[in-house]
Amino acid sequence: MALAIIPQVNHSIVNEGKLFPYHANNIIYTYNNSLEEEGYKIITSKEGIVVEYAKERGKFYGQKTLEQLFLIYPHEIPEMTIHDYPQYPHRGFMIDSCRHFFSISEIKKQIEIMALVKMNVFHWHLSDDQGWRIEIKKYPKLTTQGSLRKQTRGDGKEVSGYYTQEQIKEIIEFCQERYIDVIPEIDMPGHFTAACSCYPELLCTKEKIDVAEHFGILPNIACVGRDFTYQFCCDVLDEVCDLFPSRYVHIGGDEALKLNWLTCPDCQAKMKSENLKTPEELETAFLNEIAKHIAKKGKKAICWNDGMSCETIDSKIIMQYWKDDKQHTSLAKSLVEKGYQTIISPFKHYYLDYNYGITPLKKTYNYQFPFHSQHILGVEAPIWTEYISSILRLEYLAYPRLFAVAEKGWSNRDDYDSFLARLDVFKNKLDSLGINYAPLSEVNPFFLKRWFLKLSFYFNAVDKNIINSFRLLHKYKNRK
């Protein structure tokens, strides 16, 4: 029997019997060191409810399952025994606060939903071309200047905001109470325009630029041939490492358009001195050095998989697999086979910022991993906010697709019809939290509506700056 909760119970449910009344305060918690770290056992009978656990987080997940059970059985509960623990240790949700800014209260509301479905990693994207969102005391311009952009694609509307270190501590504490790890991301060497707008010496050209007002893959990346860049990045990461208790720090590594490196005297000198043949090898050397610095702080680095294209990439760096075309999938598979730990975040299935015409709920739920290994840490769903200016829009796109990713991370089962039936359990809970979720009638649009939604998205997304990004990328790939 499959219990009607999300995530689906991963292992056994036995002895289901007749219903009997219960009282929420008639619950006994007891220690059982034979259970898994995140596991729990629930035993219900006419005498009461017993929750067994080995670690406090297992107790917490048992409580969350009870919370879901009480949604299903508000007055009487069946006699049953549940033994449950997750399939993967990493079950994450990434929110981009850079392209558009979200308040602490808005972030907390999403964390509540994560906890409800037993997700345990909040990946917080805090720096990008369009805004710097984390206070760094050694470099105050990052927030006084880098957190502000004058407009977005010519709309004349200013976007600003950043999180103080005290506010970040507040979110960390809020997450710790829910056994959620907060992984910060400081993207480098690409997606670095906001930082470069504050400190032009980070650029190969040292020119004065503004925080980016358009989206795309931009050429304003960090000059990795200059000592100041390494000092700046290490200083920033020192404060980040001291602030966040997580074992992990995400350093990006994605979409670094290296055109300026081809003509930069400093970058070319660096390549020559270290016998590096390509800009890709130069980026790898940079990421390795940054990862080594983080390791001295007791942390491990995470990188997006397109930044891990060279064989010399540090084997201790954790790969986040997002770029899922044939070439990058083949490279990712080879790294996994060599033992690189990996987080699964496929662009075509788990990127929640794309509308339901492009990525229907069923497509997200039915995703199958392209490779299997003991080195897969788990799953993560990113939501990028270039075209998401309000928390209402973010929630509409995230829910219920995030629940599909949560189920994959917890149970790795494939029963879409059962999943749809179980979604009803959460309706009242989401309503009580004020979540603007998408109705089921809109998450798997029919053929014509899917094409309309696709065309609407691409029509809105493409402008001359996006086209210019592709032109520059083409120029780089076809360099002589």
Give a brief description:
By secondary structure, the protein is an alpha/beta fold.
Please tell me about this protein's structure.
It is a single chain. The protein has 480 residues and is α/β, with parallel strands linked by helices. Helix content is 37%, strand content 17%. Helix 2 packs parallel to helix 4 and helix 6 runs parallel beside helix 8. The model has no long low-confidence stretch (mean pLDDT 94).
The biggest beta sheet, please? 8 strands, parallel, barrel
Q: What's the Cα radius of gyration? A: 23 Å
- Report, as a whole number of angstroms, the end-to-end distance: 62 Å
* Uncertain parts: none
Number of strands: 17
Trace the largest sheet across and list its strands.
8-9-12-13-14-15-16-17
Q: Into which percentage range does the β-strand content fall?
A: 15-25%
Helix content: 25-40%
Average predicted confidence as pLDDT = 94
Q: What is the number of helical segments per DSSP (H or I, 4+ residues)?
A: 17
Structural class by SSE content? alpha/beta
Q: Given the C-alpha coordinates, what overall shape results?
A: globular
Topology:
Elements: E1 12-14, E2 19-21, E3 27-31, E4 40-45, E5 48-53, H1 56-72, E6 76-78, E7 80-84, E8 90-96, H2 104-116, E9 121-125, E10 127-128, E11 131-132, H3 141-144, H4 165-176, E12 181-188, H5 193-198, H6 227-243, E13 248-252, H7 265-273, H8 279-296, E14 300-304, E15 318-321, H9 326-337, E16 342-344, H10 347-350, H11 361-365, E17 376-383, H12 391-398, H13 401-410, H14 416-423, H15 427-433, H16 447-461, H17 464-477
Parallel strand pairs: 3-5, 8-9, 8-17, 9-12, 12-13, 13-14, 14-15, 15-16, 16-17
Antiparallel strand pairs: 1-7, 2-6, 4-5, 4-7, 10-11
